[in-house]
Design goal:
The chain has 511 residues and is an alpha/beta fold. 21% of the residues lie in helices and 36% in strands. The strands form seven sheets. Strands 7, 8, 9, 10, 13, 14 and 19 form a seven-stranded mixed beta sheet that branches. Strands 2, 3, 4, 5 and 6 form a five-stranded antiparallel beta sheet that branches. It has a five-stranded antiparallel beta sheet with strand order 24-25-26-27-28, with helices on both faces. β13 and β14 form a beta hairpin. α4 packs across α5 and α7 crosses α10. The protein starts with 6 loop residues before the first strand and ends with a helix.
Length: 511
């Protein structure tokens, strides 16, 4: 497990030399990823280190690090841990320009200030974000996205029960109980959720992560503080206490939560490493790695504790089954590689869908039946002089509310698929086509366009969820919302006169 190994960053100091983390910079977008700069100081010299935003749980202000080991830090001398209760209505937001010692970079200090037990407490905004509102990678990256939760799950509420139906975009590792508790705590406490979701609107307008303390409930934390006269400065929150979930039962489903059945069939492929990495050697984080992938181990960097007033029961609902092939034969494809121990804490959520759309060319998509016909139509369109480029993506339909038959084909087992194609025209226009596997249905192709900037990845997922919930029909009601936010929607019926005629019909819709 990665959690038992050391995790390192590229280190600008000498071996064995301790460096103090003196500043955590604001996040910024760089090469399609969210990044931050961390400032470390040793012997009066300040070094600025570029890190993925997902590394934030490792960073504790004023703590000491050595040899690039980001999972291990030492608190400054004199720091102690105290319990603090933060009461609503008593907290003030405060910001001021700041000089990062040893650096000429401009900065803004953002903190919450309040009184507790006769002390003035200074609590950095960044510490509230990473420890209370977004203590894991999934929630950290959603801070920058407006209304992105529907891409990853749908919520169903019953008496004393909540069900979360996760889509394939939601990483399976985040279905572990600790993550589910945190997510449900955030979703079901309206004040917490409202504060969290409003952060993205401020970010999109000002490129700043800040918010007002609009919580309606007291929040109790155990914090590591440094005391100066009558002031406590919070360096790190180590425990969030008395977290209340008002539901006793939680159920979750995910496309990858399945029954595993052993099969005598041979493996289709197997992967082997040419070198063996010592489990104690650890991993190196590299900001140049473009996003983590599902085969990377879960980086358990955050030692933060969470205490709940009650412990709800979590039921994992299995959908279908997967074969567990144990044997190999002459047809098994064998892949060999070197374990270089390079990892990334970058996000693989909503942005990965966008990267997939950008990088997957038509000739890379392998489909069958009518979806392959649609891919062939796109290949014909791609040759037209009016079309600059086409990029496409294929996946299975997201789960809707409850059990929805339309998510599967008539055999009741095979997941129904869809293709999304983004067509870029020579004149600068862009059209987004959604084609869903019909299986003898008269479901039209949907064409989307807009004169304004749109979060297309979120739009695709919301439209598909509405399609599933409407049992496989494009209803006027389900599409009206998207038209109200400036998206033009055109339907195109399928042609029975061959793929070239179908291509001409679609091109006519674009022109």
């Amino acid at each position: 497990m990665m959690s038992t190994r050391q995790v390192k960053i590229k280190w600008p100091f000498r071996k064995g030399e301790k460096a103090r983390l003196i500043w955590i910079g604001d996040p910024f977008r760089f090469d399609n990823k969210m990044m931050l700069h961390a400032y470390f100081m040793s012997r009066g010299i300040t070094e600025k280190v570029l890190l993925d935003w997902g590394t934030l749980p490792c960073l504790a202000i004023q703590h000491f690090y050595s040899d690039g080991l980001i999972t291990t830090s030492q608190p400054p001398q004199g720091a102690r841990e105290v319990d603090i209760t933060i009461y609503p209505g008593r907290v003030q937001y405060y910001e001021k320009p700041w000089n990062i010692q040893g650096s000429g970079d401009p900065a803004i200090s953002r903190s919450f200030i309040f009184s507790f037990d006769g002390k003035n407490v200074i609590l950095p905004v960044i510490e509230v974000l990473r420890s209370i509102l977004a203590p894991n990678g999934f929630l950290l990256y959603r801070l920058f996205e407006s209304n992105s939760f529907p891409q990853f799950f749908t919520e169903t509420y019953e008496a004393n029960k909540i069900h979360l139906s996760f889509s394939s975009l939601y990483e399976l590792k985040y279905t572990k109980t600790a993550f589910v508790y945190q997510l449900v705590w955030l979703l079901t406490n309206r004040d917490l959720r409202q504060v969290y979701e409003n952060i993205s609107f401020t970010w999109l307008q000002e490129q700043t992560l800040k918010f007002k303390w609009n919580f309606r409930q007291p929040i109790t934390i155990t914090a590591r503080v440094k005391e100066n006269r009558s002031t406590w400065t919070v360096l790190k929150i180590v425990n969030v206490k008395n977290k209340h979930i008002s539901y006793d039962n939680i159920s979750i489903s995910h496309p990858e939560i399945q029954d595993k059945r052993k099969s005598k069939e041979a493996k289709k492929y197997t992967y082997r490493t040419l070198n063996k990495t010592d489990k104690q050697e650890g991993f190196t984080l590299d900001e140049e790695v473009d996003g983590s992938t599902d085969d990377f181990d879960l980086v358990q960097m955050n030692r933060l504790r969470h205490e709940y007033t009650s412990v709800p029961n979590v039921k994992r609902i299995k959908r279908g089954f997967s074969k567990q092939r144990m044997e190999e034969d002459e047809n098994t494809k064998r892949y060999y590689g070197v374990n270089d121990s390079i990892r990334s804490t970058a996000d693989v959520g909503g942005q990965q869908l966008e990267r997939g759309l950008e990088h997957q060319m038509l000739h890379e998509i392998q489909a069958q039946g009518e979806l392959q016909d649609f891919i062939n139509v796109l290949k014909i369109l791609e040759q037209d002089s009016e079309v600059k480029a086409i990029r496409a993506f294929m996946d299975v339909l997201p789960e809707g509310l409850g059990e929805r038959k339309f998510t599967k084909l008539s055999d009741g087992v095979t997941k129904r698929r869809y293709v999304i194609a983004e067509v870029f025209m020579v004149n600068g226009g862009r059209f987004n086509i959604i084609e869903v596997e019909r299986e003898h249905r008269s479901l039209s192709t949907l064409i989307l366009s807009s004169y304004s900037n749109q979060d297309w990845s979120s739009t695709y997922n919301q439209i598909l969820i509405k399609l599933v919930n409407a049992s496989g029909t494009w209803t006027r009601k389900s599409l009206a919302y998207f038209e109200s936010v400036g998206i033009n929607i055109t339907k195109a019926k399928h042609s029975s006169n061959g793929i070239r005629n179908w291509a001409r019909i679609l091109l006519g819709k674009f022109l």
